[in-house]
Amino acid sequence: MKLQLSLLTAVLFFMGGQAVEAQKAKKDTIQEEHAIDEVVVVAYGSQKKETMVGSSTEVKAKQFADRPISSIGQALDGASAGVKVSTGTGQPGSSPSIQIRGIGSYGITTSPLYVVDGAVYTGSLAAINPNDIASFNILKDAASTSLYGSAAANGVIIITTKSGKKGKDSFNFGMSTGYVQRSIPEYDRVNVHQYYPLIWEAIRNGRLASNPALGLAAANNYASIVLVSGNTAFGSGVLKTNVFDVDPHQLVIDGVLNPNAKLKYTDLDWQRPLMNTGFRQNYELNYSGGSNTTTYFTSVGYTNETGYLIKSDFERFTARLKVDSQVKSWLKIGTSISGVSSNGNNSVEGVDSNSSYINPYRWTRTMGPIYSPYAHDPVTNANLYDNAGNIMYDAGSGRGADAAAGRNVIQETLLNKDLSKNYYIISRAYAEVKVDPYLTLSTNVGYDIRNNRRSTYGNKIIGDAAPGGSAEKYSITDQTFTWNQLLNYKRKLGQHNFEYLLGHENYKFTYEYLYGYKKGQIVDDNDELINFVTPTTLTSRTDNYRKEGVFSRLNYDFNSKYLLSGSIRWDGSSRFSKDVRWDSFWSLGAGWRIKGEEFLKGSSLISELKLRGSYGEVGNDRTDSYYMYKSTYTLGYNNAQEPGILFGFLADPTITWETNKQSDIGIDFGFLNNRISGSVEYYKRVTEDLIFQVPLPVSSGVPDNNISRNVGTMYNRGFEFSLNADVIRNENFTWNINANASTLKNQVTELSNGITEIISGTKKVSVGHSIYDYWLRQWYGVDPADGSPLFLVADAYANTTAADIRTVDGTKVTTNFNKAKYDYSGTAIPDLFGSFGTSITYKQWALSAMFTYQLGGKTYDSNYAALMSSYSQGGALSTDILNRWTTPGQITDVPALNSSTYTSSNAASSRWLISSDFITFRQATLSYSFNSEILSQLGLAGFKVLVSGENLWSKTARKGLEPAQAFNGTTSNRYTPARIITIGFNVSF
Fold first, then answer.
1. How far is the C-alpha of 44 from the C-alpha of 156, rounded, in Å?
2. Count of CB atoms situated within 10 Å of the CB of 614
3. Which of 58, 422, 515, 843 is deepest in the core (most CB within 10 A)?
4. Distance from first CA to last CA of the chain, Å, rounded?
């Protein structure tokens, strides 16, 4: 019987505006379909998945389409093994930080390179509408990334936007709305009734420690007097404010709060006025379609999100048009352009302003529970209002030393301004010429421009700018231009398949910066610079960065069984001098697709089995300076009309990029018609020529007493595991589970030029250790005899007989933190991290959920440390302070409250390390899709309603802890991530 064969074209993926098509064969008379050749996006093109030898993960739009995310970076969390995410802040529109396969550098960026539709993208990820994205691919090893050369050491994320499809036009509309709340709970802190006796106890114990002969009764009396108001004999009070209606000297008697004390007012909560429930709304509209020769996709989107912190929001408008046209049988062209406008009220950046008086996260957390943010009548205790009827705020003159005296973070947050306006144009164009059936010439152009206008206003009533007021204006414009030319030769000779790529690329980046600052506000309600008197700063600069590269790749496979791949790129970067500007980056990869062998072809158990490996070298030239090889001088140090120049930066002219030598071996598997699939991989990354700041003697006269040089070597290595399984798969019901897990080992193996160690903050870099290993004073605990804080004593003091050296349980310890021993104290790097999730569909219902987790590693919780002072002078205290030592023989890990020894108790040490283990319910979506037959009668192609949530729940070692906020394991007073829950619908015509 003669079989008739028809071809059905399935458009699978798109790259750089070029449709990547796959075909499936269908025999009219036999109910059998051959498998579609799955095609994935790779560097400068696409490739059949089964012939790939590199390590990559593809995430399709359907996996994040219904999630309430403003940045595609949020979809990276948990998406792939080997990808570690430092969660973004709660600031609407923020994006997380990403590390792929460990810590690529110490002194320069560890972030991946982003490529959008074939061109390098340097803008904010929040400028790309997630609903315009078709897929993103995470490239992890040298075989996948080496064609990007000197910028690929930290991995590459290729973002592919949506294109139109041939056939009937499609019109889609979607909207969602919901609320925004804080997802990380606050640390538990003592209340107003507990607070006064605790501070009294610290004063009393300190008085006894400094005056042992004084006696308990006299020390108690002293503490009662100086607790709040003091007197002429003993000096001023510690806390200065008494919120109870009893005499301040009788507020605490013998360590107990006066039972007759009643609160004069109760408005003592500093978080409630600043943190509430935010709101999110999102609207999407797209129209697409096409004929046999031309396809088009156009979309508009609007997102508006207000954060749970007042005066923090993000508003974005996006519009996009993409057209692809087969002009001739041998010529295809296409173009796309996106316009983006975003506006936002910016909250204070908590990381850079960790201890600032305007940091609302710090001062709502650490403000003592006895202070009201509002002013009260001293007689009636009623709130005070100004002539306009507005509530008046307390300026803080009656607060203790640890309670931001003279400031009010609520009032300042309300009065100050920090506004941003961003405008983006993201454009791409390509032309593809088919010279013959085997040879294709193409060119791709990408041009992006971003203008950021930022305005800040410092009020003239209270705070840093008082009493004159201040205004700042920033204007930042950056432009990127990428142009590449590609020659691709693809040939099949029998069972031999060859593909050769030759390319050339230019990259240009220009950064323009303008800044002005003036003081002395003239009239109210006008924060333009013209309304200020004194110009303090007016400056500008322009930076330029250029790169050029020539690259080539050869892929070969024999009948999709034996796979070879090789690539090389020669790159030149303007960041370095011409003598070291050029270098080569390359990779070699090989694979054996065992499933293609005769002995497995007919196997019903094993549906895929491939062994692959690669080795290569890539680079990292993304330093902090665009002129690393040039010594520079800083302008603007003028004396009246006399010009002044200051030596700013000493350069090493031989400095060059860091080199990443990467090896990878993996096995991909699938069983039972791929109902169970996954991979296991081992990788090792060796970073050579690490850029470190090398110390120089003070006598050298060099700024900051250091110079940047290529001086070190380190490695990252680990295993990655991925598993995907359809537990149940039938016509009406499917249940899928998926999981990934990763390990990471980081170690510095070389520090040259006489450097043995580099100490920075809580870390010390030295050979044999990770760059995230803690170097801290060694906390020993609390002496049961007297409640003293104890540290292991440094070797230099171990044999001395000073009063602050003692032996406890046979161990030499000290009560003086200045004599404590420093040592390594664990690492911030976890033993295991990853994600797991599930998806369930039943008829028209669909449910998906994902959890992320981390096991091992430690966090240095400085936020908690700030709440555990042994002598707080107006600052908040954790409820753990209630476990303090009070009685000889008591076993506890919290020292006695003591105003004489609190500096040792509070000192930075291993005491503040805590487990970084966590599990987070990262996201979930529940949807219902109405029956298509019913919808067709209404003229609809689809209608779906859904509810979705982000950051729904987490479990950590301590309430209030956020272990995923920084890769190096430190904490700061920052805007913690938001929980977002939305409901919405999507309709298609």
1. 12
2. 26
3. 422
4. 42
d(CA 222, CA 233): 10
User: Could you tell me the two tokens for 114?
Assistant: 């982003």
Q: What value does the CA radius of gyration of the chain take, rounded to a whole number of Å?
A: 32
CB 651 within 8 A of CB 707: yes
Using alpha carbons, select from 441, 190, 394, 175 the residue that is nearest to residue 273: 394
Instruction: Give the separation between CA 106 and CA 581, rounded to whole angstroms.
Output: 21
Lowest mean pLDDT among 163-167, 430-434, 751-755, 787-791: 751-755
d(CA 184, CA 951): 9
The DSSP element (H or E) to which 837 belongs, if any, is strand 832-842
Report how far residue 835's alpha carbon sits from residue 842's, in angstroms, rounded to the nearest whole number.
24
Give the SS3 label for residue 13. strand
DSSP assignment, residue 605?
S
685, 716 contact by CB (below 8 A): yes
Q: What is the mean pLDDT of the chain?
A: 92
Q: What is the mean pLDDT of residues 491-518?
A: 96
* Contact between residue 284 and residue 317 where contact means Cβ atoms under 8 Å apart: no
Contact predicate 622/108, CB 8 Å: yes
Helix, strand and coil content of the chain, in percent to the nearest 5, comes to 10, 50, 35
C-alpha distances in Å from residue 285, one per residue of 295, 298, 816, 930: 17, 8, 66, 20
Instruction: Say if CB 360 and CB 411 are below 8 A apart.
Output: no
Asked if 337 contacts 320 with a C-beta cutoff of 8 angstroms, the reply is: yes
Q: How confident is the model at residue 6 (pLDDT cuts 50, 70, 90)?
A: very low
Residue that has been written with the tokens 């030393």 in this structure: 401
What the block records as the tokens of 836 is: 């797991």
Helix (H) or strand (E) segment spanning residue 883: none
Would you give the DSSP letter of residue 907?
A: S
Which of these, 300, 409, 433, lies nearest to 361 by C-alpha position?
Answer: 409
Distance CA 223, CA 228 (A): 9
For residue 713, what are its two tokens? 């070597």
> Which two tokens mark 965?
């906020």
Among the listed residues 136, 131, 275, 258, the one whose alpha carbon sits nearest the alpha carbon of residue 197: 258
| Cβ–Cβ < 8 Å for 242, 248 | yes
In terms of Cβ atoms closer than 10 Å to its own Cβ (0-12, 13-18, 19+), residue 347 is buried
Distance between CA atoms of residues 149 and 617, nearest Å = 8
The DSSP call for residue 4 is P
Residues in the chain, how many? 989
What span, in angstroms and rounded, lies between the C-alpha atoms of 900 and 511? 53
Q: State phi, psi for 862 to the nearest 5 degrees.
A: -70, -25
631 Cβ contact list (under 8 Å, min separation 6): 647, 649, 650, 651
On the question of pLDDT at 172 being above 90, the answer is yes
Distance CA 210, CA 218 (A): 13
Q: Which two tokens stand for residue 970?
A: 């430190």
Residue for token digits 């609302």?
360
Is the predicted pLDDT of residue 304 greater than 90, yes or no? yes
Helix axes 216-226, 192-210, angle to 10 degrees: 130
| Rounded Cα gap, residues 335 and 830, in angstroms | 44
Q: What is the pLDDT of residue 13?
A: 28
pLDDT for 307-365, tens place per residue? 999 999 999 999 999 999 999 999 999 999 999 999 999 999 888 898 899 999 999 99
As given in the structure block, the two tokens for residue 556 are 């070969």
Closest CA to 332 of 435, 241, 251: 435
Q: Residue 674 and residue 716: Cα distance in Å, rounded? A: 32
pTM above 0.90, yes or no: yes
Report the C-alpha gap between 625 and 632 in whole angstroms.
11
pLDDT above 90: residue 753: no
For residues 444 and 507, what is the distance between their CA atoms, to the nearest angstrom? 12
Q: Which of 231, 233, 234, 228 is nearest to 246 (CA)?
A: 228
Residue 271 corresponds to which amino acid? Q
